[in-house]
Design a protein that fits this description.
Aminopeptidase; single chain; 27% strand; 33% helix; alpha+beta
């Protein structure tokens, strides 16, 4: 089955958030929430972000989200893949492959010197990334910060 990849539109946000609900649970209440949907709507229009969907017919089969950031150590812009999600009813390998190729193409077109993402846990999926030229790099550490408008606990 062929998947067409296109830039996401505001009208896709509800479907994308539905996929996030199914796949990427947050620790607070188990749902990405309104704040994530608002951020996604902003990313769709920003030049330093890429939000693409893979679709078959009129059905969204997957989504890829990448933000661009400057990196002094790498000497240019870096694309950071934040999400690469596939609808559970779609063949994951084909959709991920299509989305990954589009994110890499978009990063090149935007002048990125590198693309990074969290290494897939699945060895087969990790091997696909290696086939696209990805290499294991230093692991990242993350500290979550409370939003500025949140009351202290």
């Amino acid at each position: 089955m062929q998947y067409q990849v296109r830039t996401a539109r505001i009208t896709d946000v509800d479907r994308i958030m539905g996929m996030l609900d199914d796949v990427a649970r947050r620790p607070d209440d188990g749902r990405p929430g309104t704040r994530s949907a608002d951020l996604l709507r902003q990313l769709i229009d920003l030049p330093h972000a890429v939000v693409v969907v893979a679709e078959s017919g009129r059905r969204v089969a997957g989504v890829g989200v990448m933000a661009l950031r400057p990196s002094v150590s790498l000497g240019g812009m870096v694309g950071t893949m934040d999400a690469l999600l596939v609808d559970p009813s779609s063949p994951p390998a084909a959709v991920r492959e299509t989305l990954l190729e589009e994110l890499l193409r978009s990063a090149r077109n935007k002048g990125c010197v590198a693309v990074e993402g969290v290494s897939p846990r699945d060895p087969v999926e990790r091997e696909r990334w290696v086939d696209h030229g990805f290499v294991e790099a230093e692991s990242r550490m993350v500290r979550m910060l409370a939003p500025a408008d949140a009351s202290p606990a």
